[in-house]
Amino acid sequence: MVYIIIGVVVVLIGLFVLAYNGLVRLRNQMKNSWSQIDVQLKRRHDLIPNLVETAKGYMTHERETLESVTNARNLAHQTSGGGVAEQAKSEQALSGALSRFFAVVERYPDLKANQNFLALQEELTSTENKISFARQYYNDTVLNYNNKTQAIPTNIVASIGKFKSGEFFELEAPAEREVPKVSFS
Amino acid sequence: MWEQIRANRIKSTGLVIGMACLLFIIGYFVGILVLGSPLAGLIIALIIWIIMTLVAYYQGNSIFLSISKAKKISHKDHPQLFNIVEEMKIASGLPVMPEIYIIDDPAPNAFATGRDPQHAAVAVTSGLLQRLNRDELQGVIAHEMSHIKNRDVLLMMMSGVMMGSIIILADIALWYLILGGGRSGRRSSSSGGGGQAQLIILVVGIVFIILAPILAQLLYFAISRKREYMADASAALFTRYPEGLASALEKISSSPAKLASANRTTAPMYIINPLKRKGKKASDLTSTHPPISERIRILRSMGGGSSLLDYESAFEQAHKGGGRIMPASALAGVSPLTAREPGAAVEPSKIDRARETSDLMWKLNQYSSLTCACGTKFKIPPKFKAATIKCPHCGVINHIPGR
Known about the structure:
heterodimer, A: 185 residues, mainly alpha, de novo design (two linked rop proteins), 7 helices, 0% strand, rod-shaped, B: 403 residues, alpha+beta, 4-stranded mixed sheet, two-stranded antiparallel ribbon, 56% helix, 8% strand, globular
């Protein structure tokens, strides 16, 4: 009888350790993928001053556009390291300013032919992509982790070990969240 | 989300085990027919397989890359390609950046290699860089990265090695039998009944030895085809843009150029079969890749979605009652995803892209370039040792920098 009780306790402890370690692994994966986003956001902040500097010479009549990009960049740079939600908001503003900037660039063929500008544009386009891919992956890991912390039986372990649920990083424009259009053509 | 990798692994394990059975059965027959002892045959089969596996595991990467004459590049050689690979590394969540290689070949194609995500490499041909735009290149790289992520490379390598071992064993046995070694004295000493049983074993063995290599190849190709669909599905998921890969496949398949450095064993590694000639439809069982037209059709019928679920339903629609790619259990928690819009980046013209790629190839081949005052461009081969070069157009003597 005693042996059975000891056996059950050992198995229970074993299961607890397994579940706990699983949660730690998922949480680390989530933190790690957040740092991926962070790296790319910083890279974007570093690229923008160069881009504005290169564009200045060509876009003499677009001071406002350039300034709004610079301001959005500085604001985003200040909020980095803050909470996920706050940072997402300022980064979204920066994305908006950048897309307006690139729409204006279309009117300057000389700038579009500049080698330096093209190289910077490739870097920035790629950084934008990397941000959205990193966000994609981060949100997947958050979902994974949250599912584990809320589902039975790992939620018991999660509440004992004080595993808080993760925060999603939403950077989408409102239009992107709408229901996809269906065409019947 | 990564459930389907596990599910797929189980299915592939089954196929690999099938191959292993083939290997041991052939070892057994070789033992009986050639060595007179089934155990010796099994041991020989095991030894050949272990040696080939070790070589493939530790050297496969470099052997493969050197067979295809691939050259390693860094960020400054081709920023766009490098960036795209990094994007896909992030999207797929790979732990380290794979090495990037370029093959100087006008045939557009790409492959991934490496035994695990820590030792991975992707290679693309210069023809691919010339023809594809950014979104299309992203689709191709995503396809290759999912081969790495799903551990397809290791699986293909291991089953390729097994296929090779089976072929070697069958060859040994056939040569032995043809050269008359099978008529040894052992058989004549056995009694009548045993002789008949041995005759049956002999016949079955010979038939098996002839059939085994063919069976092994069919298994190898079956494993490969499934993986291609799976990699296409993952590529759509990673890029959120199935059209990129679809139009890349279209461009690649419409190119008449044939890849010079591919052979039958390495063929399944490429994004499309490098050996199949245009217009020739290979039969279903012996092709390493599913028909491209079908892969394109599935990608284009995902109905604006980009999740694995969308791919699966598009696949099932294309193959009415023809099985599925991912088991239903793996797709249980998958939520639908909307595909993104095409990239808005300014694309260089076709001519610019071709020029950029050829400049890169000259550079990777250690040619230095020089522009004369009259506008003539020189490509100086590494063997040219003189310090100056005379321009054939204006006659000016140009000093080669760095000499």
